[in-house]
Design brief:
It is a single chain. The protein is built from 14 helices and 17 strands. The protein has 424 residues and is α/β, with parallel strands linked by helices. The protein has 2 domains: 9-202, Glucose Oxidase, domain 1 (3-Layer(bba) Sandwich); 207-422, Orthogonal Bundle (Neutral Protease, domain 2). The longest helix has 21 residues, at 225-245. The radius of gyration is 27 Å and the shape is elongated. The two termini are 46 Å apart. Zinc ion (ZN) binds next to helix 7 and helix 8.
């Protein structure tokens, strides 16, 4: 998940025409008739005339859209626009003071360039916002991963497509065809103050609910606070239960931030990530579902997170096993065992050596069996040998014989005997 990208032309992707992607395509955001309740931009004149401009933010997954300061601040910028067509030099300290810079970032695409550095320079010269446009790509998509040059930047950076760029240029009095030709030939001045003004607003000051180990952030214009409070409460109880259950191996309490978005479009806008949820360096960004997860499901999911954060990942059978075990314990259920016994009675239960290899959740035939059997087997191991031994096994992954001094075969027989006893 943690990929390091530097922003060259490689990370500027064109046309995400992936039909199965979860979330709108970029066209949706650039379309003139789309309105977003959480963001708006326009060009305007003092007279009062104005036109909406559509844009998509430049996002860095670890800090999210530039300018919202980790979801603590709304973007609210307006002022004169300066058109920038050439790479600027570092020896002009205040050349863009209080200006919104409209920057063509790929006029010299044949040169090897580092856009992050250029953005950083524009920022240092006093710009209050940066609008990026491309003369090559219809719809630039710019996503930046962990770049030290940009860590300190607290001004908004957005990109517009060709159509919206042309709207700005037309307002400034340019003939479009001529403009693109002159730009290509390098005939335009490197920097020019335009006659029109620009205004940009992005909701960035998110509501937050903070508890000692969990912070939840969301836009309270879009998600009701009561539903979030309910989620926080359930998640907190689930965390508390897990610490109690796994007290013998004392998992370290790890703080977590979850940012909820009201729907796929909102999540995509703020994270540049298509899909329902993603985790980045332990923080989670997720589309909010109206149905509140139940306590036992929260226990299940958090068990995954806690084991992962404390001791790293593991094979499917142990990972799901411990989550199913905790889930069952949280509601005093013996379902894992009774379902496994049903499989045994019907002669359907796979041998343990095959069970441990199932990719639970992906195996179309044995997923259900895998869930119950893994939960039952982990309960047997913990009930018989304790959590410390289980943790040793977790760390060694397949070290059954090393940890328990028994072959998988022997453990299987013991497990079945234990099952017969517990079901009485
Ligand atoms: Zn699971």
């Amino acid at each position: 998940m943690k990929t390091k990208f530097y922003l060259t032309c490689l990370t500027i992707l064109l046309g995400f025409g992936c039909a199965k992607a979860q979330g709108p395509t970029l066209d949706y955001f650039f379309n003139k008739s789309t309105t977003l309740p959480w963001a708006k931009a326009s060009i305007y004149f003092k007279s009062g005339s104005q036109q909406e401009i559509k844009f998509f933010p430049v996002n860095a997954p670890d800090i999210c859209p530039f300018g919202v300061c980790n979801y603590t601040k709304d973007v609210n910028v307006e002022g004169k626009v300066t058109l920038l067509t050439e790479l600027i030099t570092e020896d002009q300290p205040n050349s863009f003071e209080n200006q919104i810079v409209l920057y063509c970032f790929d006029r010299n695409a044949e040169e090897k360039r580092w856009l992050a550095k250029e953005i950083s320079q524009i920022y240092k010269q006093g710009a209050t916002a940066i609008i990026l446009f491309s003369h090559k790509n219809e719809e630039p998509f710019i996503k930046i991963f962990e770049d030290n040059d940009l860590n300190q930047i607290n001004i908004p950076i957005v990109a517009t497509d060709k159509t919206n760029t042309e709207s700005i240029l037309q307002a400034a009095g340019y003939e479009i065809e001529e403009f693109w030709q002159n730009l290509k030939k390098g005939k335009l001045p490197s920097s020019k103050a335009l006659i029109c003004n620009f205004r940009l607003w992005i909701k960035g000051d998110f509501e937050r609910i903070e508890t000692p180990n969990l912070t939840v952030r969301y836009n309270n214009d879009l998600i009701k606070s009561e539903s979030i409070r309910e989620i926080v409460e359930t998640n907190n109880r689930a965390q508390g239960f897990i610490y109690q259950l796994f007290e013998p191996i004392a998992p370290e309490r790890k703080a977590q931030t979850v940012t909820y978005f009201s729907d796929y479009d909102e999540k995509l806008f703020y994270t540049s990530h298509w899909g329902k949820g993603f985790a980045y360096q332990g923080d989670v960004f997720s589309v909010f579902e109206q149905s509140i997860p139940t306590f036992e499901l929260a226990v299940h999911e958090f068990t995954h997170t806690f084991f992962y954060k404390n001791w790293g990942g593991n094979m499917s059978f142990l990972s799901e096993g411990v989550a199913m075990y905790a889930e069952a314990m949280s509601i005093g259920s013996s379902k894992n065992n009774s379902k496994t016994i049903d499989y045994i009675k019907k002669g359907e239960l796979l041998p343990l050596k095959d069970l441990v290899e199932i990719e639970i959740g992906e195996d179309s035939k044995y997923t259900q069996m895998g869930y119950y059997a893994s939960g039952s087997f982990v309960e047997f191991l913990i009930d018989t040998y304790g959590q410390k031994k289980f943790l040793e096994l977790w760390n060694l992954v397949r070290g059954w014989s090393k940890v328990y001094n028994k072959s998988l075969n022997e453990l299987e027989k013991e497990w079945h005997r234990w099952l017969a006893k517990t079901s009485n």
